[in-house]
Every structure is written in C-alpha cells, then in structure tokens.
Amino acid sequence: MVSSEGLNVSPRNQGAKKFGVTRPISFAGPTSVDLQRTLELKTFLIDMGLYESKEEDARREEVLGRIRQIVKDWVKQLTRLRGYTDQMVEDANALILTFGSYRLGVHGPGADIDTLCVGPSYVSREDFFYILHDMLAEMEEVTELQPVPDAHVPVMKFKFEGISIDLLYASISLLVVPDDLDISDMSVLYNIDEPTVRSLNGCRVADMILKLVPNVEHFRTTLCCLKFWAKRRGVYSNVTGFLGGVNWALLVARICQLYPNAVPSMLVSRFFRVYTQWRWPNPVMLCEIEEDELGFTVWDPRKNPKDRTHLMPIITPAYPCMNSSYNVSASTLRVMLDQFHYGNKICEAIELNKAQWSALFEPYLFFESYKNYLQVDVVAADMDDLRAWKGWVESRLRQLTLMIERDTLAKLQCHPYPHEYVDTSKQCSHCSFFMGLQRKQGELVQEGQQFDIRGTVDEFRHSVNMYLFWKPGMEIYISHVRRRQIPSYVFPDGYRRSRQPRPANQHHTEDGEGSRSNSGEQHLKKRKDPEVVDDKQDKAEKRVSLSPKSWDSVSPETVSHRLDRASEERWASGSVGSNSEAETGGISNSSFITNLNSEMISCDDVGFESVAGSSEENAASDQVSNNRRSLLNDSCKLSPDVLLENGGLTGTGAYSDNLQLEANAALGMVVQSIGGDNSEAMHKPQIESDNKCMKPEVRIQIQALQQCQERETESQQFWRASAFYLCGFDNQIAAN
C-alpha cells in the first residue's frame, strides 16, 4: 500500500494509531544493537561540544529575565505617556516568549536565542523599532544592535552580555497581556496584520511540533544530530536557499511520526532512507492543513498558483499553515538530495559495522568540488556598516541563483555556499561568499556551447545596490575564480592542502556523467589530473553557442552604480571554462562567460584565461589574471586613480587588463561567440533570409539599422548585434 506521501506502509499496521497525516511506516522498537549505537551517537555529540553546560544555560535564563523586565518597563512607560489611568499603568504588561532551537531544546553553545515580545494593542511596531530600540542602544550590556524593520519577519538583532538575541514583536488585540497567555489559541490572531501573524507563528509552530512528536527526547537528540550534520555538509541556511532550523525540525518530526518507537540511531538512518525516496514536491506535513474563518492565506497549490512553484514544500503545523522552505531553488534542492544520498550510504555502512558515526559528519569539501566559482566580495567602511550590508547581500544571494537558473534555462547550476570568509591580512571591513558553478549533469552539450551570465550578474548587482540603508563605503564586487585561484584564507589552516583523489561522494562530476554518488566518502575513485591540458583542445572550431539570456534586457549604457560612486566602481571580467576544459587554458566543450562589466567586451581577449591560444599566451593570461586578482583583493586600500594607473579601470569603470580594444572589434568578438561569424561581418552584415522568419517589428528595425550603418554609435552597434542574434540567424551562420 502506498500512502499519500509516496511511502510504503505495511498492511499489518493499517489499523494502528495514526501519527500525523498518515499511519506510521513501522512500530518496531530498538534492538540491543540500536541502543548501543544510540549511546555511541550521544557520546559523539557530547564530544563534539554540541551541548551547553548548566552554567551557560543558567546565564541564558538570567539574560532572558533581564530582557523581560526591560520590555515590561518599556510598555509601562508608553502607557503612562499616553495618558492611561494609574491602574492601567500598573496592569500594563509584555511577555517574552522563546521559539526556534532554544524553545525546542536543541540549542548549543554560542547559539542565538529567538525571542518574541508580545505587547498590548496600543503599543505598535513603530514603538518597538524606535522607542525600545533607543532604550536598548543606551544600555552598556547591549552591543551590535541592528534593527531590520523591513524584513519578511521584522526583527531586532543584538547581543546582550555577549549572548545573541533575535527579538520579534507582536501587538495583539488586548489592552492587557496576561502572564498566562496561550499563544496557541486562535484568538491571538484576531485583528492583526500579516507581519504580526508571521512573528507569532514562530512560537506557535515550536509548540505544535513538541505536541505532535511521539517522544520529545528522541526528537531532540535526532534533531541535534541532523542540524550538526547539515552544517558540516553545507546545507544549513534558509537565507541562501537551503534549510534553516525550523525546516530541519519539521523534517525530523515527520520521521519521528513515521517511526514512533525508534531511538535516535534508528531515526537518523530512517531520515536519510525516507528523504532519498521522497517524491518532491509532495509536501511534508505534521498535521492536516487547517482552514479558518479568519481569512489568512494558507498553503494550497490548488488555489494559489504561486504555491505550485514550490519545489520542496515543508508545511508548518500551526494556522495559518505556510511553506517554510519557499527559498529552495532547483540548484539547492539538487545539492540537498545529493547530500541525503551521501548520508544514506554512510548510515548503511554504519548499520553493517563498516563505518563509525564520525564518518557521517565529515566536512563537505566545497572548494574541491567544482572547477569554477563566483566570488562575491562585500566591503564596508566599518564593522557596523559591514554587519548590515553583509546581511543584505547574503539575503540576496538566493536571487542570484534564481536569476542564473532563469537565464540559462536551468542548464547552468549554482551551489551557493552558506559560509562567509574573511581575509585577516586586510585591514578594511570585508567578507567574501562563494558559489560553485557547473553545467547541469546529463545535458547534451554542443561543441563550443557557452553560458553568458554577464547581464545576469549585472542585474543582480543593480538589485543589491538598491539597498535603502546604503552608506558610503558599502561596495560589492563579483568575480570569477577557478579552483586553483581560490584564495588561501578560505582553507582551515590558511593554506591549500595537497590535492587528494576526490571522494566519490563529492558528487559534482563536471563531465555530466551521473547525477549523484553511489558510495560514501571513504570510497575513492581515480580522476585524471585537472591541471593537465585536455586533449579535446585540438578539436575543430566551436559551433553555435547557447546564450538563453535575452540581450534586450541588458543595456550597454546601464547605470550600474550610484552617480556619486561612479569613479569607485571596480569590476572584473573573465571567461569561465568548464568540464573538459583544461585548467591551464585551451578550447573547451562548454564554458561560462562571466565578463562582469556592463559593456560588451570580448570574452576571448579579456578574462582570467584565454579561450584559445598557445600555452605561452595562456600563461601570460594567468599572470594578468593573478595581477588583477591582487588588485581586487587590495581594492579597499587603493583609490580609483591608482587602479587606473595600473591598467585596472577604464574611464567607464570597466576593467581592461591593459588591453586596448576598439568598440567594433570587441562587438565583433561577441558575435563570433554567438554565431561563428567574424568581426568584419559586424560592420556590413549580409542577411540573406526569408522575411517570413522575422517578426515585422524586428525586420523594420534591422532595415533601419542597415540604412544608417555609416553613422552608427557604439550603442547602436550593440543593439544591432542583439537584433541579429535574436532573429534566429545562428543556425544559418553555422551552416555557412
């Protein structure tokens, strides 16, 4: 029998008690071996320092008590200022409730405390972000105070005596908030707005999870284990498109429902077994979705078209039920599924006594898993500005992943890594994020196929620069780096270790053969040296390349920065080779063009490496690349004038690497990469095609452009190239 969630249910359990939306898969309890493995797992988690000491726990409770008193004083002060009676002032109250990992009992040392302040109806969110904010700012115990009022869930972040606090606010429709308020009661949702509902939902969901699991202690141990695993494997981050704390809690809670009598060692193994077979986008739900007359939107793909686009729906159990994992993209889902398969293989080995628990938590070797990366450098004037600017940029990285998927028709996959890195040798306030790039596995690749994401990156950069709280000094630089160019400060010991044979579980095989690993990390396979030049570089010239991005969405004269910072914009351009391309240069079967300046510059002549040429030319190109990387890393110390003197920036902010290219020549190289034509054709394109293949408006545009070729500007040439490409002449050019 197959349940609604696509999992097998034993017929003998059909009449048994139901946990969640389906009957359990198994009621089997632990054997003596399972109990021994559970003991070993708990010992491992303790040795890894995942549990807090009693002293630290008491200190957290003391801090929460201080915050409770502060918010009560704040509400009483506002009540008095607004002219309420003395009795109202005396009765005025505010509650501090916890949610997230602290409420679930799975927080570790140094973890933040997710808290919710519940206040009366006459104390607004504006009072919270202005008056309470000012009160906290004057306290010596409070540091790193950062209000985020425009977030999806408005929050105020700060540290109180060194303990990180995320404080939300909810104003409910009561004049006096009772101390014994039941946050799970539906009445707290009366007459409140959507942001308040989202703020309340954190506490409501945490309470519901604890009510819906068969055994709270087993749930906590299993969740603690899997959160640690997710962090080690680089898939713990809601903001970058993976899963956050509540997502992992809901996934683990569902496994506890499906195996109600299992102990943690069994639950961990079943977690990977179930979710490697889960038929996404079937939703994970702990209970039936509740409808109510209050009218709040609940997750329902039958009624809401937007809900149909969700790839990995994990539904919260409290009304209004929402998809907690709407951030997941096709690329991040692929990464997580691969990691689930990896975990399943290791757990199978543990059950056969062929591996220990430590093997499950081996760190993911992100910087050995791809040949090509995007590096996002974030710079600010000081640490306070960097904290806000970095948070904004990190929250937008998911959009960059979605944009690249959109503009390459999901054929170029991105892996945003949810860790930030800091170069301690630099004096300025900065950090870096990285994204792995690879062609979609299993895709048929044409000779010379390319992915042009210059316009995509430029669009992303524009969206980031729309930050409402931008200050002078806040900058973002995006550049392509190859594996061998990864800066040393990202490695644990500050230097790159010698390359070892890649473990089979490092699943990103860039030759497109196979979608995921079939063995654990301890099983190694032979790979040819990536530094050796690929013999495919002697093949024939490249044919038609693919550039799904619509050129008319990219303007050659786009204003890509604030006017008062025009001279400070520093950009890099590069051609990213892929798959079979040798890491030292040479023609590749497929490459990603990541020229990250706003103008159309030849990807063959400007970049981190030349797409074609002799080994000497490629070596020279690498040297230029290294020089440019050095300039970029030092950009927070150098003025734009210094960069210009070193051949870094042109007058328009485009990096030229000291290469002098005429506009027409550069434009011709772009067309060459599109259709195989030469740059001469760009001056006098001979279009011989049946007019029926063109839309009327496109045909008129081309005729008008042909009539004024002699007086064309660089901008007009760009748009003529775009129209030439969009008309669909690439097949004709390839045939010629």
TrEMBL record:
Span of domain Poly(A) polymerase nucleotidyltransferase: 20-213
Poly(A) polymerase central domain residues: 218-362
Region of interest: Disordered: 492-588
One GO CC term, this protein: nucleus
Entry's Gene Ontology BP terms: mRNA processing; RNA 3'-end processing
GO molecular function, one term: poly(A) RNA polymerase activity
Tagged with keyword Metal-binding: yes
Catalytic activity: RNA(n) + ATP = RNA(n)-3'-adenine ribonucleotide + diphosphate
Composition bias, Basic and acidic residues: 528-544, 559-571
The name this protein goes by in its record: polynucleotide adenylyltransferase
Transmembrane segments annotated in the record for this chain: none
EC number(s) from the headed UniProt entry: 2.7.7.19
Listed cofactors: Mn(2+); Mg(2+)
Alphabetic keyword roster: ATP-binding, Magnesium, Metal-binding, mRNA processing, Nucleotide-binding, Nucleus, Transferase
